Amino acid sequence: MSQKFAPNLTSLLMRETAIETVPPSIGYLSGLVKLDLGFCKRLKSLPTSICHLKSLEELDLTGCEKLKTFPEILEPMEHLRNLCLDFSGIKELPKSVENLVSLKDLFIEGCKDLKFLPNSLCNLRNLEKIWLLVCSKVQKLPSLPPSLRQLKLDDCERLKSLPELPSLCLSLSASSCTSLENISDWRAPLLQHLGDIIEYASYEDYIDFYGCAKLDQNTHNTMIAHRAVIQILARIKFGRVTTYHSFCYPGDEIPVWFNHQTCGSSINNIMLPPYWNNDDFLALAFCIVFHWNKIDNNRMLIPSCTLNFKTIDDGSLYEYHDYTSSCKYNKFSSDHVFIWYVERRSLESSEEMDGLDWPSTCSTEASFHVSHSFSDYVNNNESEYDEIKKFGVRFVYKQDMERCDAETERKNKRSFNECCESSGSETVGFLEEEDEDESHSKKLKLM
């Protein structure tokens, strides 16, 4: 290869060729930045000399069905940032993968023979994204690097548990992981730390555990629910605009943080305090428990909420309609929780709320009604059974942010002390445990 290509070659695109092996001499292409071997369906091996490609930033092995092993990385590769093994024949990654010291994105979708990832994966301190979708033989994951920001595990049907998740992991999708039972831990970070990641991240932040019916109650009604609330507060605090507003997980409880709750789909006659929409008011957060049965494939659930604000002073009535959406893929019969929010600026800028006095209105009365519809990409079939079972609302204020960080610091300190004392007692998750002098009935309250 050194005779056929100049050493300063930066891109080598051999996609969909009949190549069966890559010769060791590829290591002489010291200036190579991109190597694309995608859909080389006869490719069986890569040489260990690939680690000599010191300028390499992107390696694409998508669709290399006969490539069963990834080569040992015998020395650090300081520039490789993107590795794509989607739909390849890879059965495992070597321990020496830890020498991909600059790796940021790892794509391993549709690798049907892959059974596990090496424990050394946690040493990749720059790894931010792992996409491990439709890997049906994977049953567990190793410890994950603290740098991880996005983890996609959709349709890993045999995956039974998740290790402790990095506190700054904002995007977690495990949709249709039907064997998943628990998450070891998912610590709550301070909002200001999440804000740094939100500002930096180029991807959306979301939580999706649709169809994970085997998750234990502590995982879905406590850990995931609390994490969703924290990320909503972080989005609101730092003005994150995202097209993916909803959080979804199996469960049958509205988190107590939503301090206005009802069975059914309507909350009426909420008496608001004077000047409820002053400068401290930031958003409205919504939560529903939805039950469905035999929803067809490719259905999109579209929950919507109608808000009515009645001004006590003059009796004026203002109505606002909010819509959010979440796309789902398979048939399941269970309760699921959906959480979303509407920012203050969306309320202020709406034509329906144009007559409401901003930034503050004297005492008002509010009512809410949530409903839903379905969109079907294929046949427009209706679901056999669906129902909104519970509904919750919270008015979000600046004080919520301050209390959230204060509570997080208190919990983290307590957890640290418990570990130091080796008490063996189980650390209680964020938002779950109350102050010692509060009643047990107020657990889950953030404030």
UniProtKB/TrEMBL annotation:
<protein>
    <submittedName>
        <fullName>Disease resistance-like protein DSC1</fullName>
    </submittedName>
</protein>
<keyword id="KW-0433">Leucine-rich repeat</keyword>
<keyword id="KW-0677">Repeat</keyword>
<dbReference type="InterPro" id="IPR050715">
    <property type="entry name" value="LRR-SigEffector_domain"/>
</dbReference>
<feature type="domain" description="Disease resistance R13L4/SHOC-2-like LRR">
    <location>
        <begin position="12"/>
        <end position="172"/>
    </location>
</feature>
<feature type="region of interest" description="Disordered">
    <location>
        <begin position="408"/>
        <end position="447"/>
    </location>
</feature>
<dbReference type="Pfam" id="PF20160">
    <property type="entry name" value="C-JID"/>
</dbReference>
<dbReference type="Pfam" id="PF23598">
    <property type="entry name" value="LRR_14"/>
</dbReference>
<feature type="domain" description="C-JID">
    <location>
        <begin position="250"/>
        <end position="402"/>
    </location>
</feature>
<dbReference type="InterPro" id="IPR055414">
    <property type="entry name" value="LRR_R13L4/SHOC2-like"/>
</dbReference>
<dbReference type="InterPro" id="IPR045344">
    <property type="entry name" value="C-JID"/>
</dbReference>
<dbReference type="InterPro" id="IPR032675">
    <property type="entry name" value="LRR_dom_sf"/>
</dbReference>
